[in-house]
Amino acid sequence: MVTVTGLTKRFGENTAVDHISFTLQPGQIYGLLGPNGAGKSTTLKMLTGCFFPTEGSITIDGHDLFQEPEAAKRCIGYLPEIPPLYPSMTPREYLSFMAEIKEIPKGERKRCVDEVVEKTRIGQMQDRLIRHLSKGYTQRVGIAQALLGMPPLLILDEPMVGLDPTQIVEMRSLVKELGKSHTIIFSSHILSEVSMLCSQVLIIDQGKLIANDRADNLQPYAKRQDLLSVTIGCLAEEAQAVLQGIAQVERMEISPDGEGQCTALLYHAKGADVQGEVFTRLHGAGYKIIQMGARSASLEDVFLSLLDRDKKKGKQPSRRKGGGKQ
Amino acid sequence: MIAFWKRECRGYFQSLVGYIFIAGVLCVIGANTYLTCLAGRIPSYETALASSALVFLLMVPILTMRLFSEDRKDNVLLFFYSLPLRLGSLVLGKYLALLTILVIPLVISVVYPLVLSAFGTLSVGIIASTYLGFFAMGAALLSIGLFFAALLENQVAASAVTFIVLLASYLMPTLAASIPNSALVSLISLAVLALIFALIWFLLTRSWKGALIAAAVVCVPACLVYFLYPAALEGLLSTLMGALSVYSRFASFEEGILDLTALIYYVTLTALMLFLTVQVLESRRFR
Predict the structure, then answer these.
(1) What span, in angstroms and rounded, lies between the C-alpha atoms of B11 and B26?
(2) Per-residue confidence at A323, pLDDT binned at 50, 70, 90?
(3) Which residues of A touch B3 (CB under 8 A)?
(4) Among B70, B76, B83, whose Cβ lies nearest the Cβ of A102?
(5) What is the pLDDT averaged over residues A211-229?
(6) Less crowded by CB within 10 Å, the N or C end of chain A?
(7) Which residue from B minimizes the CA distance to A69?
């Protein structure tokens, strides 16, 4: 469906996106993950033709974005980070205007607008001025606009940002439903959204693509580790002193967890049995074990571990300080 | 294109700006008609109309400054690049809306000669030609306003620069008469032009190097010509100034002469400005 090769974008001296290549298969939901300033929005803007890349090529549904821009763009429905809405119009008027701009034939416009209004469930609000709508509804109007004409590829830039928990749940179910009939790529820095919705995850940091795989397959990218989580009835410093230096524990993070409690996360080599040693030490020191359990690395652990590894490679950070991002 | 035309028209009538323009133009034409034809007892409506051309100086910047500000503010302009939309059609749609607002007060003002004709004879041909000239000149000035609205991100800056440019254009003939026409003066004016050219280049590309090269491209050949063959530069200034004076070409319309060169000048200027506006918008994608 989409092939991106060597995509690069430089704003003056800053490299926002650095030789990214990936392929999107039809019918899947892809998550573009990364910390703020990583280059997610810039990548998506280039994918949609808003920016011209400094280097690289993009092919959408067989059409090269630069040789056949109109054919390629007809396949795309795009929702930018800030939805492109006119506050002085109602959703109905706005969607009719967008349908006209997208060159949907006159006879079909009303049907298309009705279709997207129904899919995004904004029927109640369609005649209220956009400036009077809540954030949740404006996001939905934005998605409705992207859906006009039912393009095969949907590109959503941070669709969940600024929504309250109820709205996030609604948005999530909408994206899931749309995923059945469209190819979707959406960017987020909220890991839970990505892990819940996406079949495949692309992780970007400082303009580079550091991971691109199915969510379940990402485990091996993390250090080959298991995780032991222990909640102890003592202070963090005390736990630190007791649990220091256990064999086969590669990393330990202890943080306070309420009144007189702390939680220790011990990253240890796969298969190593550290539970016994932890229990012995804590029992010996007289500390109460409130909870102890093993869990495999979550996407968050993978993500943090990947960022950590990427930084440790000693690459010069090309992070921008405010300016340069359009 | 039609979508943008409809949207801008609606925008102009929902906000006050459209009404202000129409009222302003009608006011000035009306006042001039009174001063010339009624109080001044000069039986020439076309003189009243012609002297109203000055209203464009103020009204054009007011009308054009909001053209791209809403789109920029609502993040829509960048979004339009993601659509299979030709920027030319966007620009044309907005320009058509400008022309629509221009036509309205002109059509309404036809009442004046109609009323006056009951009291005397009016030359229909001359009045028609004056209206044509008025419309063509207004259209050209509006295209200049459109260009600066696209080029400058700040609404106020856009209106101020448009006003200054229109004022300069209006004063060109007077200035041209009083400035000496020597080769040195022409060289200096070319240097000033180079500076303006470089500034516009910088605004489009945000690159100092590009701007310097743009300035050099104009300055270096100019200097060469000055030192090698100064006679070629004499009189260049008045030619340049003549090219930039939009108002002076209106005079022939007032006399009832359908001066084709003046009409072509207006049409070409408009086309050039619209083309440059599209280029300005295209250039943003590279930044």
Answers:
(1) 20
(2) very low
(3) 97, 100-101
(4) B83
(5) 66
(6) C
(7) B84
Question: What Rg value do the Cα atoms of chain A yield, rounded?
Answer: 24
Rounded to whole angstroms, how far apart are CA atoms A209 and A39?
Answer: 10
What does the pLDDT average to over A43-50?
88
Three-class SS state of B65: coil
| CB contacts, 8 Å: A78 with chain B | 79, 82
In angstroms, the CA A325 to CA B207 distance is: 16
First-last CA distance in chain A: 27
Joined tokens for residue B186: 């022409």
A76-134 tens-digit pLDDT: 999 998 888 888 889 999 999 999 888 888 888 889 999 888 888 888 888 889 889 88
User: CB distance from B72 to chain A under 8 Å?
Assistant: no
Q: What is the DSSP string of B183-246?
A: HHHHHHHHHHHHHHHHHHHHHHH--HHHHHHHHHHHHHHHHHHHHH-GGGGTTHHHHHHHHH-T
CA distances from B174 to B58, B178, B189, B269 (A): 20, 7, 16, 21
Q: How far apart are CA B226 and CA B230, in angstroms?
A: 4
Q: Which of A12, A73, A87 sits opposite B84 (nearest CB)?
A: A73
Q: Sorting pLDDT into bands at 50, 70 and 90, what band is A301?
A: low
How large is the average pLDDT for residues A150-162?
A: 88
- Beta strand A29-33 pairing with A183-188: parallel
CB contact under 8 A, A52 and B83: no
Of A74, A103, A326, the CB nearest to B287: A326
List, in sequence order, every residue forming a beta bridge with A256; answer none if it has no partner. A262
User: Quick one: tokens of A145?
Assistant: 């606009």
Distance (Å, rounded) from C-alpha B79 to C-alpha A84? 7
Residues of A in Cβ contact (< 8 Å) with B78? 45, 50, 80, 84, 326
Q: Is B209 on the interface with A (CB under 8 A)?
A: no
Task: Write out chain B residues lying below 8 Å of A70, CB-based.
Answer: 84
- Sheet with A63-64, strands from edge to edge, namely A14-24, A2-11, A55-60, A63-64
Task: Enumerate residue ranges in chain B where pLDDT < 50.
Answer: none
Distance CA A267, CA A222 (A): 11
Which residue, chain included where needed, has tokens 């991106």?
A: A4
Instruction: Give backbone dihedrals phi and psi of B245, rounded to 5 degrees, phi first.
Output: -90, 105
Task: Say yes or no for a CB contact (<8 Å) between B82 and A69.
Answer: no
Nearest to B28 by CA among B147, B138, B122, B156: B138
Three-state SS for B257-284 is CCCHHHHHHHHHHHHHHHHHHHHHHHHH
- Each residue of B151-160: b (16+ CB within 10 Å) or e? bbeebeebbe
Beta strands in chain A (DSSP E): 2-11, 14-24, 29-33, 55-60, 63-64, 76-79, 153-157, 183-188, 200-205, 208-214, 225-232, 249-256, 262-269, 289-295
Q: Which token pair is B174?
A: 């007077």
Identity of the residue in B4, B11, B75 whose CB atom sits nearest the CB atom of A82: B75
Task: Indicate whether A322 pLDDT > 70.
Answer: no
User: How deeply is A280 buried, as exposed, middle or buried, from its count of CB atoms within 10 A (0-12, 13-18, 19+)?
Assistant: exposed
Identify whether the C-beta of residue A30 lies closer than 8 Å to the C-beta of residue A179.
no
- Inter-chain residue contact A86 with B76, CB threshold 8 Å: yes
